[in-house]
Amino acid sequence: MTNTKKYPAKLLLFGEYTIIQGSRALAIPLHRYGGQWQQAPYGKVEENLQLGLPNLLKHVNTAQEKNQLQEIDISAFAKALSEGDFFESNIPQGYGLGSSGAVTAAVYDRFANVQTENLNQLQQTLASIESCFHGASSGADPLISFLDQSVFFHSKTESEVVDVNDKKLEQLFLIDTGIARQTEPLVQLFLEKCKDDFYQKRLLAELIPLVDDAIVSFLKHKPNQLLDLVHQISYFQFKYFSEMIPAAFKTIWLDCLNSDHSKLKLCGAGGGGCILGFTTNPSETKALLKDQNLIFINEPIK
Asked: Tell me, what's the pLDDT at 113?
């Protein structure tokens, strides 16, 4: 085994839920967490079982029987697992940080006979592989992990790699809620809520334009403008996505809404995992949220 490439976690900055309704989205690699192929002398099957690699092997095999995912060398995949190769990852599961996306990217990168350079085609292939874990996948998470670059999703079929430098990351922080959650029930709840005509109109008229504008503001590095847009997104989510905000964190959510330097929004599906924050003054944010488990994206891992 010679593949020692690391596959980072992913962080969806904008587009959670709204991408289902046609908004744009922006995701970046999160290098604080990641995974890579390893080999133990006698195998480390508990790692692969925990990450679902045996099930993924079966999933690819079934797909190939239906003439799908033919680009994956299933014999090499099976041989690697039988010889003790395992995927070692510190990406927390149930946090919306792309733990299954990193595994998917690693499998594709190592076992694909031919790799496409077409972003849309690549995303669709990765989605087919990752569907083993969630029943359905957009392919966005493994795409970020595989490319190890930020991606601006203009639509479900159009995306581009964009530059997100360290200066732009200075505004970002996470709150670790310590709560693992499952994405699928939360998405189903959202889809049910969208059946309400008033709710759907609010999304289309208010939230989606805010998300689209926030992405542009972030990429152009306009921190004050961005904070104002995130404030409006945060208020909207507090009002219309209350079920996705853990009860124990609603007070600090309001504290940030009332501050002039820090704002919170959902990170992925919400319901636990991490909460995403934006700040124009990290030191004041640390003082305001001193009792929380804060992770600033651009700070080195201790």
From this structure: 93
